[in-house]
From TrEMBL:
<keyword id="KW-0539">Nucleus</keyword>
<keyword id="KW-0378">Hydrolase</keyword>
<keyword id="KW-0698">rRNA processing</keyword>
<dbReference type="GO" id="GO:0005524">
    <property type="term" value="F:ATP binding"/>
</dbReference>
<feature type="region of interest" description="Disordered">
    <location>
        <begin position="549"/>
        <end position="619"/>
    </location>
</feature>
<keyword id="KW-0694">RNA-binding</keyword>
<keyword id="KW-0175">Coiled coil</keyword>
<feature type="compositionally biased region" description="Basic and acidic residues">
    <location>
        <begin position="578"/>
        <end position="588"/>
    </location>
</feature>
<dbReference type="GO" id="GO:0003724">
    <property type="term" value="F:RNA helicase activity"/>
</dbReference>
<feature type="compositionally biased region" description="Basic and acidic residues">
    <location>
        <begin position="549"/>
        <end position="571"/>
    </location>
</feature>
<keyword id="KW-0547">Nucleotide-binding</keyword>
<dbReference type="GO" id="GO:0003723">
    <property type="term" value="F:RNA binding"/>
</dbReference>
<comment type="subunit">
    <text>Component of pre-60S ribosomal complexes.</text>
</comment>
<keyword id="KW-0690">Ribosome biogenesis</keyword>
<dbReference type="InterPro" id="IPR027417">
    <property type="entry name" value="P-loop_NTPase"/>
</dbReference>
<dbReference type="Pfam" id="PF00271">
    <property type="entry name" value="Helicase_C"/>
</dbReference>
<dbReference type="InterPro" id="IPR025313">
    <property type="entry name" value="SPB4-like_CTE"/>
</dbReference>
Amino acid sequence: MAPSSKIDRQWSALTPPLSEWILDAISAMGFTKTTPVQQATIPMFMGNKDVVVEAVTGSGKTLAFLIPVVERLLRLETPTKKHHVGAIIISPTRELATQIHSVLISLLKFHAPSAAVINTVDQDEDSDMADADAPPPPTFPPGTLKIVPQLLLGGNVTPAQDLSAFLKQSPNVLIGTPGRLLSLLASPHVHCPQSSFDALVLDEADRLLDLGFKEDLQKILGRLPKQRRTGLFSASVSEAVDQLIRVGLRYPVRIAVKVKARATENGKPDESGKIEDKRTPASLQMAYLIVPASHRLPAIQKLLTSLQPRPQKAILYLATCYSVDYFQHILPHLFDGYTVVPLHGKQPDKVRRKNFTKFVDSMMPSLLLTTDVAARGLDIPTVDLVLQLDPPSDPKTFIHRCGRAGRAGRKGLAVTFLTPGREEDYIEFLRVRQTPITPLTTPSITTTSIDADAMTSKIRSVVRADRALYDKAQRGFVSSIRAYSKHTASSIFRVLDLQWEDLANAWGLLRLPAMPELKKFTGDRSLGLAIDFDALAYKDKTREKQRLAELNAEKGAEEGEKPRGGKKREAPAWSQKTEQRATKEVRRDKKQKKREAERVSKLSEEERKKEEELRGMIEKVRRKVAEEEEFEGFSD
Ligand SMILES: Nc1ncnc2c1ncn2[C@@H]1O[C@H](COP(=O)(O)OP(=O)(O)OP(=O)(O)O)[C@@H](O)[C@H]1O
């Protein structure tokens, strides 16, 4: 692409020219000029080209596909027939689909015939709220072209309700997550013939082309005409290029909008002034801090108080849903003045929606505590700080997570925490992938072991007040170690290198859990703490009563087993039982492995190879399924 300075970036200069109402809508949104990706994509996608678009996060890709989709459907000679679909936009998460839908609605407010239909639908939905004195909606002659969108998400709405809304409103643009879109398209009442269907858009295309969505996506494609226009959009689409054939793109135009930046060497700006391509926005400062795990929360505490202006909205990424479920109870005690809002894929639909809205609408300084479920596409312009406590297991996700800040030219900061040693290799790993990160110097954050110890004590005092938090801590810790062991960059993130005691202190654990990863651990699992776990009580009275009853019953049973006249055998603590179970599991595992090794030794070379191949395939699927868990509930 030619440098944007030589291009007339006025919306009115685009060819083919945009409709007057679109220009009005964009002007009302306050966008005086096109962004480079809009400048390059809109003319191509409005023509008859398939496009594969890669542009940095927050660069305006949503309008780059919505404007062409809408313009083309409104330039047809006749309106899309009843119950026929003209365009489909697929997104990997519900939140993103909802966001695309609302951008489309704000555009269509400026197109009178479409706005009239949308208003009628809204009034039907809120019939109790309908204003009897409101003027009747304007009417348009039959045959007037209009856009009627439908949002398909799953969650509380059943597929039957989706179909009923489709039959009633006859939408011509569908926006949704793959599963729910497929359910609707499977109905014989929904038609996508060659004569009506115009365009398919895959937003976050590389994510949609991943194994987890493959089946649904192929079934959707099977229901669409081959002669159509297709657009693939993402900030990291290039990895998906070899899969384009699967989505039926023929000779697509590739549009890549990258950013030029000063080269870096070992995480420091290169002195020679060399310029290189970057896959992240220029307005986003990508920094790292190398500190032991137990210094991370003290560092975040200092960062939140020393950044000027004070971050109003920040996102803190953790590796798993269970980690979020634990830290949501801890962080409010640590970060004064911040409302902590948890969001993850295992929350019930209603809670997730409520929490997301709470974060977006909050007028107070807020911290969204989340997983990769909120890594892609979400546009919350006031987010100015992204913190990654654990780098994501998929390196592609890294740029999407960071890209929640520094959007549309606004200043943003993304800080990634790495521990000293092998994890520092991640800096070079990212540089090779055109995602350079540099040390955080402004503000300069230093933490001492006194800070770290004070933080650990504070977390422990919170945990000791409620046994439920102890349970959550153990579960969250185990899940985060499992996630760490599944890192794609497995030579950098090795469980073998973890500093267990320091990590346990970082979490404020009361002891290290029994887990196979700690089989060879020779340190002190009690972390130097003398805790009577039998006395550690649940805050919830009913739960505590039940625990005590179980504990007493167990003690009674142990009493019964006591040898006559012998010494009373000490009953294992309730909390020790899980550890005993884990040890048994490890033993069972060992036996199974031995038996398996004996069986394999009797196989022929060919049989062994076949088995290995099969095992490889199963492992690949297993990994993907584990990854999908994070998206559970978000993507159907
Ligand atoms: N021409 C423009 N001028 C200024 N701001 C714009 C323009 N077009 C879009 N924006 C704003 O830029 C922000 C980011 O846009 P959008 O969400 O489409 O980015 P994206 O490229 O899809 O990002 P991601 O890769 O993270 O999904 C939005 O708040 C949007 O309103």
